[in-house]
């Protein structure tokens, strides 16, 4: 069963979105026991991003962010396969809407830093704020509660990290300045990469589906696979 995209998929999409790819960055993320931590914990994200920025520059940060987003896209696509099958609606509009809605509501350190930044010292108020937000988006109370709990955990950890960065800036202005620049670079790349994914979503989905065709056919069946790839006109986009 397909869990994450192959490095080949990361390489192709990396060239498309970032104009850059590097297997070493892929290996650092995928081969580490902390694979997901740099997506859901700000401390791990900042530590890894600092190393990548020093070694590869901003294009490396773009590729780092994109790597995590591609992993998330595969996870979303796996889940939405079932919903598309139940609805029996494999039109391009339905496919794209399903993927985009899942992508927009993804929960990570990326989404906290760019969309869900909310600070309070009261954990109950934090969860209530996020739960109300997800209910307003149309989620059931149970789903809204689960998403709010996950996002609250991320927010609490990220708040601690950002406060530590502020303390560093007060004691060592130069080091604090470097951390502030790193944060700005991460946020800029999260916004740019997510925008590029939205703009190129058809082509990216086609790359994911066609590069690992057998895995997707085995998971969903050839009929569903063919319906989706035909609706997306993958033969024209690849």
Structure report:
- It is built from 14 helices and no strands.
- The chain is mostly helical and 238 residues long.
- It has a domain at 7-117 and 184-237.
- Helix 1 crosses helix 5, helix 4 (42-56) packs across helix 5 (58-87) and helix 5 packs across helix 6 (92-104).
- The two termini are 24 Å apart.
Blueprint of the fold:
Layout: H1 7-17, H2 23-30, H3 37-40, H4 42-56, H5 58-87, H6 92-104, H7 109-114, H8 123-136, H9 141-171, H10 173-199, H11 201-211, H12 213-220, H13 222-231, H14 234-237
Uncertain residue segments: none
Shape: globular
Strand content: under 5%
Distance, first to last CA: 24 Å
| Helix/strand/pairing category | mainly alpha
Order of helices and strands: HHHHHHHHHHHHHH
Nearest-integer average pLDDT:
89
Estimate percent helicity: over 70%
The tally of helices reads 14
How many strand elements?
0
